[in-house]
Design a protein that fits this description.
Number of strands of chain A: 8
Strand content of chain A: 5-15%
Structural class of chain B: mainly alpha
Shape of chain A: globular
Radius of gyration of chain A: 30 Å
Oligomer: heterodimer
CATH topology of one domain in chain B: Cytochrome Bc1 Complex, Chain D, domain 2
Cofactor (chain A): heme
Order of helices and strands of chain B: HHHHHHHHHEEHHH
CATH topology of one domain in chain A: Cytochrome Bc1 Complex, Chain C
CATH class of one domain in chain A: Mainly Alpha
Structural class of chain A: mainly alpha
Organism (chain A): Glycomyces albidus
Largest sheet of chain B: 2 strands, antiparallel
Keywords (chain A): Cell membrane, Electron transport, Heme, Iron, Membrane, Metal-binding, Respiratory chain, Translocase, Transmembrane, Transmembrane helix, Transport
GO molecular function, one term (chain A): oxidoreductase activity
CATH architecture of one domain in chain B: Orthogonal Bundle
InterPro entries (chain A): Cyt_b/b6_N (IPR005797), Cytb/b6-like_sf (IPR027387), Di-haem_cyt_TM (IPR016174)
Helix content of chain B: 55-70%
Chain lengths: ~525, ~270
């Protein structure tokens, strides 16, 4: 037998060469492998959404093997005792069978639902990072808009998934959607009839939603995510300002091998967190809700959290009905539901253009801004967050009222007043905090670090010794330009190098023996 | 001829009716005078039932009278009349500690009971003595044992879930009132509550839900709220549905992953 020559390394090289000869891979793969990722934690938030989306595709495929989107009436005779003998749709029955009789089915269902919540939550958190650091500015406005559209497609994809099992809660959700659709002037009733192929609930809506949920919307999401990530590659990452970082470079780690390893680890960690939540926390116990009947509505019927602020707006909005006799009525639900949702889609989409218009800043930006350095935008963002939180809490105000022993009426009025007043207060407070943080940065740059050493001069005045960061001028001031990045605030943070002590949650630096010996000497009174 | 015969027959008819009427009055009056309860006579005899009524009255006069008035007649603006509410209502309110109420409010919350079950039964006997009313059937345990859980679930979702929630976790009503959680409640309590409609709860009388249907509901509530093994989780998040699930994804999922991002980015 002939011995093979060469090491495994040269074998790999040879295999690579053969592949390149046939598929012309070297050039694109080199670009891919050399893509540089900045190494700040805030750049990892979008990945949470990406990896939970992959898990959604996998777990959803499993669920689709067993779920039947059928509205045929059947009598349940499955494993769950309290529903035996109850009439229900085949869709609900197959969801119950999926939960109780398919091995691992309930776990997969719970994983699918937790992954959805994580997908939407991480999109929101990722969006906040992009917004507060100004990463959406030119040339990246398109990608910001794609991100917003991704959120809304995910929003409806999640809502449709919530509606599919045809349990009591799904039907309640669909009923509210029907009411919202029907509230649109002129076209509303027709749109609602088109959606349900006639009267609510009809027998077609589940199978229609099913195709949208498992095929059309996932395809749209997949396409948009591909473009979203493709644009990040084409336009390159933004990065924080800092030593050596300019508008024209990206400093960080190459895709291969460093970043790929991190990403694989991160992906497995995300999936682990979702799996752990699916195993530990019960989610959407459809067997408690029973089959959907039009006459049944439970208290504490809430949508998933990403829809909850809209539910809250509907709960808070006064019952102002607008009528033009003899026939025209504009129901109150139109304003929070349709106008509110329309604005929530529209305003984020046009925000980059609005900011360009008002700041007249048309330059390209590859360096990020710290939130404090753009107080107007930061305060606006916090204002929206507070508005959203008040809306979401009001969406669950009956649960809050009951569990915290507050009158539901008081909760509603607190929400009505809070949703107007709190964002304004939040704007002002955030603005002041941003200015304060800016000032403190400038103070350290001009006067030096606080050392914690208090001195008393001969005429009795106390003062703190400051360590200037450079040679001070005749007034004791240093002239250092603020470069848009963290200003050291402690003595052991000074210098170009990162802090030397190791450890994540707490420092694991050992005190040196030398110092210990000296301390012993001092304490034993030899000096 | 024919007319006078008719008249005579009419007279006879009237006489007969009068005789029957008098006879009936005599019988009823006689029976009444034989069997009618007389307070004085009973106090003298002092048998077991009457002693319960007397003991109940003693407790009533020290703990209930300030709001519900003399002989359970009620006091305008303080407490409703208790005549005709029956022992089921009394035992529910007293055994769950809702009565005696500490202060006037949106609703009497459940509390540690102030009386033993025996004492509650005495007060119940007294209120029953004042004006009758509904009481729990003696064979409730047998009824619940043969109940249909599935049917009970159907009835629960239609009649109860709009306030107490799908999973019996309770829910808020307007102006500070609430439908309490059903965790850990006994069969009797649920039956008494349905029968008498305490606080803000509607009355489900026997012509709305038969005793058998009530037993079905009790069996379902006990199954779902108290015996269910909660498939799908160590933590049920209180079974409040999406509101606590939304909190969990941020407090547990996002928090864990944000710490992970710090860790991964820190390990450069």
């Amino acid at each position: 037998m002939k011995r093979r020559k060469g090491t495994s390394d040269s074998l790999l090289t040879k295999a690579g060469g053969e592949l390149d000869d046939r598929f012309k891979l070297a050039a694109p793969v080199r670009i891919l492998f050399n893509k540089v990722f900045p190494d700040h934690w805030s750049f990892l938030l979008g990945e949470i959404a990406l990896f939970s989306f992959i898990l959604l595709l996998l777990s959803g495929t499993f669920l689709a093997l067993f779920f039947e989107p059928s509205m045929v009436e059947v009598t349940y005779n499955g494993a769950y005792v309290p529903l035996q003998g109850i009439e229900m749709s085949r869709a609900y029955e197959s969801s119950l069978d999926l939960s109780f009789e398919v091995r691992g089915g309930l776990f997969m269902r719970q994983m699918h639902h937790w992954a959805t919540l994580l997908f939407m939550a991480s999109i929101l958190i990722h969006m906040l990072r992009i917004f507060f650091t100004g990463a959406f500015r030119a040339p990246r406005e398109t990608n910001w808009m794609i991100g917003i559209i991704l959120f809304w497609v995910g929003f409806f994809e999640g809502f449709f998934g919530y509606s599919l099992p045809d349990d009591g809660l799904s039907g309640t959700g669909l009923r509210i959607m029907e009411g919202m659709t029907a509230s649109v002037p002129f076209i509303g009733p027709w749109a609602s009839a088109a959606l349900f192929r006639g009267q609510f609930p009809g027998t077609d809506v589940i199978s229609m939603i099913y195709i949208i949920h498992v095929f059309i919307f996932p395809l749209i999401l997949l396409a948009l995510i591909t473009v979203h990530i493709g644009l990040v590659f084409a336009q390159k990452h933004t990065q924080w300002p800092g030593p050596g970082r300019t508008e024209h470079n990206v400093i960080g780690f190459r895709m291969f091998p460093n970043y790929v390893m991190k990403q694989v680890g991160f992906m497995l960690f995300i999936w682990g967190v979702i799996a752990a939540m699916a195993g530990l926390f019960q989610i959407n116990p459809i067997w408690l809700f029973g089959p959907y009947e039009v006459s049944v509505v439970s208290s504490a019927s809430q949508p998933d959290f990403y829809v909850m602020y809209l539910d809250g707006l509907i709960r808070l909005f006064p019952a102002w009905e607008f009528r033009i006799p003899p026939y025209f009525t504009l129901p109150a639900v139109f304003w929070p539901a349709i106008a509110g949702m329309g604005l929530s889609v529209l305003l984020p989409l046009v925000y980059p253009a609005l900011e360009r218009r008002f700041t007249k800043d048309r330059a390209h930006h590859n360096l990020l801004q710290r939130p404090r350095d753009n107080p107007g935008r930061t305060s606006l963002g916090v204002m929206v967050v507070v508005f959203w939180v008040v809306g979401a809490v009001s969406g669950g105000n009956d649960v809050f009222a009951e569990k915290f022993d507050i009158s539901l009426n008081a909760m509603t009025w607190a929400g009505r007043i809070g949703i107007v007043v709190l964002p304004i207060i939040a704007y002002y407070v955030t603005y002041r905090i941003c200015l304060g943080l800016q000032q403190h940065d400038r103070e350290v740059l001009a006067h030096g670090l606080e050392t914690g050493i208090l001195m008393r001069d001969p005429n009795g005045r106390f003062y703190e010794v400051h360590q200037p960061l450079a040679e001070p001028d005749e007034h004791g001031h240093t002239q250092i330009e603020y470069n848009g990045w963290v200003v050291p605030k402690k003595m052991n943070r000074v210098g170009a190098l990162p802090p030397t002590d190791r450890g994540f949650f707490k420092s694991i630096e050992e005190p040196s023996d030398n110092g210990g010996a000296a301390r012993d000497e001092i304490e034993s009174g030899k000096h | 001829m024919a007319a006078s015969a008719k008249r005579r027959r009419g007279w006879r008819k009237r006489l007969g009716a009068l005789a029957r009427f008098t006879g009936a009055l005599v019988i009823v009056g006689g029976l009444y005078s034989v069997f009618s309860p007389s307070l004085y006579a009973q106090e003298a005899e002092d048998n077991a039932i009457d002693s319960e009524v007397v003991k109940g009255q003693e407790l009533y006069d020290t703990s209930c009278i300030s709001c519900h008035g003399d002989d359970g007649e009620g006091i305008e603006g303080r407490g409703p009349s208790l005549i005709g509410v029956g022992s089921a209502a009394v035992e529910f309110q007293v055994n769950t500690g809702r009565m005696p109420m500490a202060a006037q409010g949106a609703q009497a919350p459940d509390n540690y009971p102030q009386f033993t079950e025996e004492e509650a039964a005495w007060i119940g006997a007294y209120i029953e003595y004042l004006g009758g009313g509904a009481s729990v059937p003696d064979d409730l345990a047998a009824l619940v044992e043969h109940a249909d859980v599935g049917e009970g679930g159907d009835l629960y979702r239609v009649n109860c879930s709009s306030c107490h929630g799908y999973a019996g976790g309770g829910g808020a009503l307007s102006s500070g009132a609430e439908a309490p959680a059903l965790e850990g409640v006994s069969d009797e309590e649920i039956y008494q509550a349905m029968l008498t409609g305490p606080q803000n709860m509607p009355v489900f009388a026997d012509n709305e839900l038969t005793p058998e249907q009530k037993a079905d509901i009790i069996a379902y509530v006990q199954y779902v709220v108290n015996d269910d093994k909660d498939p799908g989780g160590v933590f049920t998040l209180g079974r409040y549905g999406p509101s606590t699930e939304g909190l969990a994804i941020f407090l547990v999922g996002m928090t864990a992953l944000l710490l992970t991002t710090l860790w991964i980015a820190g390990k450069s």
